[in-house]
Design goal:
Number of helices: 8
Distance between the termini: 48 Å
Structural class: mainly alpha
Protein name: HEAT repeat-containing protein 5B
Strand content: under 5%
Order of helices and strands: HHHHHHHH
InterPro entries: ARM-like, ARM-type_fold, Laa1/Sip1/HEATR5
Helix content: over 70%
Number of strands: 0
Radius of gyration: 16 Å
């Protein structure tokens, strides 16, 4: 344990002090998604969001997932918006990986949004979607949603064929 984690660990165990400022923390993290973060920052934002919802109150979870879904759904294909879209995809994958069943039925909607975004995606977005799907498939095997598996397999097989040819 480092000195920094010893100071904050009791706060996260009880979760009481976290709930008071959780809404502000979630808003700040969602705002960081829209600041065009790089790959390490994307992963960190996703892990921080997952930890906040795991330890604190999960009432803002679906709102955060919907905001990320809206970002992915956005039709803006400009290079400046690409990093924002990649951050949203990465955060979705990380949140689903760490939160599992807490995410409920929002999983299916997110899968279809990501699969739809694959159709016109360039290589970076395709790669990030496949990584997010890998994280989701681990969750999905536990949840046994075989109908979604078939759609995921078709879309990702097409992406792999396209990138390998």
């Amino acid at each position: 344990m480092t000195l920094g984690t010893e100071v904050h660990e009791p706060m996260f165990r009880s979760g009481v002090r976290l709930k008071g400022c959780q809404k502000k923390l979630v808003e700040q993290l969602i705002k960081q998604i829209h600041e065009s973060p790089g790959p390490p920052t994307r992963k960190l934002i996703g892990r921080c969001l997952a930890t906040l919802f795991n330890v604190g109150d999960a009432s803002l979870l679906f709102d955060s997932i919907n905001k990320c879904n809206d970002t992915v759904r956005n039709k803006d294909d400009s290079p400046s918006f690409l990093q924002v879209k990649l951050a949203a995809i990465s955060c979705l994958g990380t949140m689903y990986q760490h939160l599992g069943r807490m995410t409920g039925r929002s999983y299916e909607e997110t899968v279809y949004i990501l699969l739809k975004s694959l159709k016109n995606a360039e290589s970076q977005t395709r790669c990030e979607v496949m990584i997010a799907m890998e994280k989701k498939l681990c969750l999905d095997l536990v949840m046994q949603q075989l109908l979604v598996h078939k759609d995921i397999f078709k879309a990702l097989r097409h992406c792999l064929d396209r990138s390998c040819s």
